[in-house]
Amino acid sequence: MPAESSPLAPRQTLPYALQPYATQAAQSRGRLMPEPGSPTRSPFQRDRDRIIHSTAFRRLKHKTQVFVYHEGDYYRTRLTHSIEVAQIARSVSRYLGLDEDLAEAVALAHDLGHTPFGHAGEEALDAAMAPYGGFDHNAQTFRILTRLERHYAEFDGLNLTWECLEGVVKHNGPLVGPGASAKARARPVPQTIAEYSAQSQDLELDGWPGPEAQVAALADDIAYNTHDIDDGLRAGLFPVAALSELPLVGPVFTEVQERYPGIEHGRLVHESIRRLIDLMVSDLIRETEHRLAEAKPASVEALRRLGRPMVAFSDEMSGHDVTLKAFLFEHMYRHDRVTRMTERARRVVLELFGHYFGDPARLPAEWAAQCDGVRQDKAARVVADYIAGMTDRYALQEHERFFGRSSE
């Protein structure tokens, strides 16, 4: 059975007061291009709305996480995943007295830079771009937010607040310095982010982000893990019985089966997943409250200077998180059915890159014009921007148009 834990104390809904260490919209460091304030929305609400109305956000509907779009319409897409992350981030932020609009904005934006075909597409594009600075989906998200969305009359990008951009860039922690993860230290800061931070707005790349971005990062983990279990079971990649030995997960499924004998498979999965989400969210809140009570940050700036995250799982839940990721890697991401699809996806992305980079005139006119008279690395980045913006369906259609039906 799952470990017993004391229930969280109820908190009031609206209106509620922000904690001193929350990010205060009225004290925002502002936008790169100054704009008049809105009489009806806070700066962070405007950030969220701009993200929702962006072209890149709409395209997430046809970008998948694990499966290609034609595998079935009941699997998660990047859009549904981002909405689920935003829901968890809002709920946690409200309970903790943080700015839930900022947390939601970071959550909705965090996957905008993903290529078609999920991680397989990103790995292929990174390989193709290796001589020209590589490809990183977080850096691509930042390119979208600061350059590639071109709809506003007075600026490129979405001209988001400093706090939102900082949260997107650093939601998984500092990019440099002692607080940076081994993964972050393994490669240089992406050029787009480094240049913006050095020349436009200092994003303090060696520091921790505000608490709302930290919440969004762990909301991503919760949504990703639990809903990949859901999708893996729906796809028949592994049976419920395979989960029985997993700590946290196995006991939850067992408890539901024992409480509701003969329960339908779909109800069993949904009931178990919702309980898993609740256990992980409750653990996150308790551990975060414990850390905040110890550190007593008097402001968001003080929280950033603590040198460690304030929003976190307990050690026990962190262990469960690692174990669950390992299970999904072995039983889902490395499943024969998935690897066959990802190999085809890699080939599609690599061949499209070679096709466009070999002759940029093959790009649509507005993209081809950006390659005229520029260095190879600049042209390669334009091609990468174009391919990264494709949906699964469009990438397959374009590949078929140029190479025939070999991708099927």
TrEMBL record:
Q: Which biological process, per GO, is one annotated for this protein? A: dGTP catabolic process
> What parts of the sequence cross the membrane?
none
Question: Looking at the record's lineage, which domain of life comes first?
Answer: Bacteria
Q: Which GO terms describe its molecular function?
A: dGTPase activity
Q: Signal peptide span per the entry?
A: none
- Which keywords fit this entry according to its UniProt record? Hydrolase
What is the name of this protein? Deoxyguanosinetriphosphate triphosphohydrolase-like protein
Question: What taxonomic ancestry is recorded?
Answer: Bacteria, Pseudomonadati, Pseudomonadota, Alphaproteobacteria, Rhodospirillales
